[in-house]
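Hey team,

Filing this mostly as a record. A colleague (T.K.) asked me to run one chain through the structure pipeline before their review meeting, and I want the input and output archived in the tracker in case anyone asks later how it was produced. No errors, nothing strange. Just documentation.

Input sequence:
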Amino acid sequence: MSPGRESIEEKLVKCADTARSEVLLNHTAHFPNGGRPTDAECKQLSTDPKFKGKTWAQQLGIEMHEVARNCAEAALKDLVPGRFSLEQRYRYDRATKQKKPVSADEEKALVESGNAGELKGSLVPDVVIHTGDLLAVQAVYDFKFRCVNDGQLPEWERYDRGHPYHGKNQEEMYLDAFGVKPLRITARLGGLR
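Output structure:
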């Protein structure tokens, strides 16, 4: 990859830090500990009707991802224009090692027609750096946010029973599909391999 990898990773780490700070500042009224949620608070259900049935950890994670995504888009459009994708979905066949990008229109049509199950087993990294060809992947990044900032490394998400990748985690599947070691981008800890 070009010498800009370090610059890309610096920008993404800054986006993760910004996302965590911005989202927690928006929720200082919910967390009396200076806007920092405790482990117990993270497990409680959110009081926001928009996130009904979700815990605070889930809500904060969704909000932080959204802020980080917007930040990454703004940073990368100048740094690597035309050479990055955000939340690009790929169908992946483990047997043949073939991957195929799924367009936003195709994804929307499957969801709206009630056929979202056809997307099961697809991979959606947060950030992909490529040559301009979605299949020529050079780097894969995933934002990971822990609800409690305890200095522990965030884990790669494991696939549940019944999922085509059960027994594997995101890191393993991204490496298998894209042929590059993915990097976790997390607030306060930076980029973690």
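Quick notes for T.K.: The mean pLDDT is 90. The longest strand covers residues 137-144.
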